[in-house]
Amino acid sequence: MANLWHSVRGVQIRYLGEKRFLFQFYYVMDMDRVLKGSPWTINNHLLVLHKLQWGEDPLKVPLILTPFWVQIHDVPIGLFSKNLAVQLGNFIGKFIEYDGSNLGKENRNYIRIRFQIDVRRPLKRKKQIMLCGNCTYVRFKYERLLLFCFYCGCLGHNDSFCEAKMALGVEINEMGWDLSL
User: Fold this and answer.
1) Engineered SS bond to 63: which of 48, 52, 58, 146, CB 3.0-4.6 Å?
2) Parent domain of 115
3) Residues 81 and 11 both lie in one domain
4) Could you state, in chain order, the average pLDDT of each consecutive group of 10 residues for the chain (181 residues)?
5) Is 0.90 topped by the overall pTM?
6) Does some domain include residue 27?
């Protein structure tokens, strides 16, 4: 990770046990750049980062929240707005920021937002919205999505190792999620 992050003065990495590591940066700008670049992965596994506050025990911090970028597709013309982006971001997780920089350029017909997701919960696929009394759906496409279960919709494992699927004890042909995410 240290080679990938290219920090100016380096980073000290210490293994704490229980699958936890402490990353100590020597410049705040290096740490901020790494946090802003999340999500990061190691061997296809999500690296959940948390900026420690003074007095926090790194072994007791719940590592359950991570930021993601998502593209929101099939938004009706005229509804592209930061207000809608905030509402949808809070539906998926917790809204962080709206990327309106390339809106309308290069045939980009989606809203792009960054939000914080709880990795224990299934990913949202779509959301029904009302427009002039008519119902329509917007679809979510997650950027840099890696190890993911098509059966239960959760991050961190695939359908071959899904506890929910194994609990049924039968082979399931129908998956709840697909590659459109």
Assistant:
1) 48
2) 65-147
3) no
4) 78 91 92 90 87 93 93 85 90 92 66 93 91 86 88 87 79 71 72
5) no
6) yes
